Amino acid sequence: MLIKGPGSPRLCERLKDSDSVEVRSKVFPDGEIYIRLEGDVKGEDCILVQTTYPDKHLIELLFVLDALLENGASSITTVIPYYSYSRQDKAFKVGESVSSRAIASIVSMYADKFYCIDLHSKSILDFFDIPADNLSAMGLLAEHSLMYEPDFFFSPDEGGKERVKKAAEKVGVPWDYLEKTRIDGSTVEIKPKNVEVEGKTVVILDDIISTGGTMIEAAKQLFEQGAEHVHAGCTHGLFVGGADRKLEKHFDSVFCTDTIEGKNCKVTIAPLLEKNVLN
Ligand code: R5P
């Protein structure tokens, strides 16, 4: 039985599943969140799909999990399309929390199985005490990219090269990566690198677009080397602080999946969930 998490309404609508339960979510005047399942889950094997960005949806996730347990669900598979706090996968400085582990611990308390999509750091899977799997939307993004007739795929940094390699190989397009250094939360530097993109159409693929700084720096480098068209695609489009409008000035197009629902969602991960989770 599909449990339609309030953080992923359009994605849940796109999933072909005959049995489903809606979840009512409302906010009290003091900002606290109320959750109620609008159907019977007693004895059911439940699949909850709920993203966790922004934070409101993370709180909803915890309360829906509790409601499923309270109402006698037989088993719970939790699908978190965008796993927030995945960039805090370790304590970088003394005193910091490992925020992504805190989420994993709570999900493990309630659920029997866990899935996410293009998790920023796969090491997070080890924080779960239940079977945990990471699916990739890169193939879907690669297929979507074909409409731009790309000559090259690029990762904006070395950390994303395996993801982009996978996407590129799926559709038979050459690929490469750039070298990024993060200066602070909203500033990055991308070193010039000699790449053969003169007059070419390029698609830059990443897991997350947050402030857009990474993508914009990558586009500048590629345009400087003569690229004619540059498109930006990612799995998780956070687009904080109006990043989507900033990106429009630098790119021929910007696209992402519906792991976080918004206006640039041109690719749905529904087929990925249908094949791997709902089958
Ligand atoms: C970082 O390693 C990630 O893969 C993304 O490149 C990063 O989160 C994007 O952030 P922003 O859009 O703020 O540059």
In words, what does this structure look like?
By secondary structure, the chain is α/β, with parallel strands linked by helices. It has two domains: 142 residues, Rossmann fold, CATH 3.40.50; 121 residues, Rossmann fold, CATH 3.40.50. It contains eight helices and 15 strands. The strands form three sheets. The chain has a seven-stranded mixed β-sheet with strand order 3-2-1-4-5-6-7. The protein has a six-stranded parallel β-sheet with strand order 9-8-12-13-14-15, sandwiched between helices. The chain has a two-stranded antiparallel ribbon with strand order 10-11. Strand 8, helix 5 and strand 9 form a beta-alpha-beta unit. Helix 4 crosses helix 5. The longest helix has 16 residues. It is globular. The structure holds ribose-5-phosphate. Ribose-5-phosphate binds next to strand 12 and helix 6.
